[in-house]
């Protein structure tokens, strides 16, 4: 990597969706602490207030320097428009390193634009594999890893996957930046969020559900079976389910004319503090989200994953997560097994200093005083 004339590498961070905003937040703040020149590019993949702006406000992030406002489109059109827009910005601003985080179309476009512009690319959360090529995210992960110069693997397991694929970039195990974010915000969530009162639910007396993956909600039968399994378990155990619903899932419910069972209460997507509070307080979380599998493991809430594969197997290895698939009987069985599970597992995603470690590897800016880094 070549440094700019004042010796400090210029960083471009590219993001576009809810989980990227949350997981890039520690990197953006670490750049700020170190006085690094950081260009923030938003692709506009997510644009609804409650998937986007609410996180910039709550996490006190700067307004992106550019928003490409690409919006919702087919995979090819969405990725193509991002690629063109990002390439133009990289050409105009000539950063020394492009950082992307995760596995969305925004990540793929950012990594390709950086690689095609001969700029070093760093992939944060590298090496995750579900080994299910039906998932659009799996293609994004594999391609991004193979064009990246720096692979910031969250765990030893993900490092091994990358070594097995002989990726050409430098692999460093850093932990996951979601730990940095949770350590910074979980106490604040407990202190500030009034969501339990607002929803009239009691600690340990409700379940939390999130489901938005294309392979689950885009098919009527899959979505129906998922809802049936979760609602049947709720009825059997006499607890309610709270489901902050992603707009993709809501639009599929509307399109399919699918009724949500009475045990499941759908609500609008929540901001980060309210969501963290619910995740911590729930007796059990049902999810198909990647980030939620990690967060429940870190927060000590047992999790049932409504998928047949996971790119976060570490959560299952430590006993925090169980893969149930979509069969209603299997969902009930997994719920029964995980409910009341003692959260004495080790957190496999690092110590909350992933962002600092990543900037250390890139030799970006001066290392801050330990007191400045949230723990
Ligand atoms: C995307 C990512 C997925 C990630 C998820 C995080 C890809 C291929 N998928 O899925 O990996 O888990 O973000 O939440 O990159 N919509 C809105 N408002 C928005 C954004 C989307 O209403 O701000 C609706 C639109 O109807 C859109 C649909 O959601 O068609 C899907 O949006 P899209 O960004 O294509 O994929 P996600 O399902 O959000
Ligand atoms: N999240 C949130 N409000 C919600 C649902 C999720 O703040 O109503 C947060 C959650 O804490 C996690 C992230 O969104 O950090 C997960 O995003 P999502 O499930 O959309 O994407 P994935 O992780 O599956 O890519």
Q: What is the arithmetic mean of pLDDT?
A: 95
Morphology? globular
The name CATH uses for the topology of the largest domain is: Rossmann fold
Please state the CA-atom Rg, rounded to the nearest Å: 20 Å
* Hetero ligands: uridine-diphosphate-N-acetylglucosamine, uridine-5'-diphosphate
Report strand order across the widest sheet: 3-2-1-4-5-6-7
Low-confidence stretches: 1-5
CATH superfamily of the largest domain: Glycogen Phosphorylase B
Topology (SSEs and partners):
Blueprint: E1 11-15, H1 18-33, E2 38-42, H2 53-58, E3 66-67, H3 75-93, E4 97-101, H4 105-116, E5 120-124, H5 136-147, E6 150-153, H6 156-164, E7 170-173, H7 177-192, H8 195-199, E8 206-210, H9 214-217, H10 220-237, E9 240-244, H11 247-256, E10 264-267, H12 272-281, E11 284-287, H13 290-299, E12 303-305, H14 313-317, E13 321-323, H15 328-338, H16 354-361
Parallel strand pairs: 1-2, 1-4, 2-3, 4-5, 5-6, 6-7, 8-9, 8-11, 9-10, 11-12, 12-13
The structure holds uridine-diphosphate-N-acetylglucosamine and uridine-5'-diphosphate.
Uridine-5'-diphosphate is lined by residues 18-19, 22, 210, 212, 244, 269-270, 272, 275, 289-292, 295.
GO molecular function: UDP-N-acetylglucosamine 2-epimerase activity
Organism: Halogeometricum borinquense
EC number: 5.1.3.14
Short summary:
The protein is 46% helix and 14% strand.
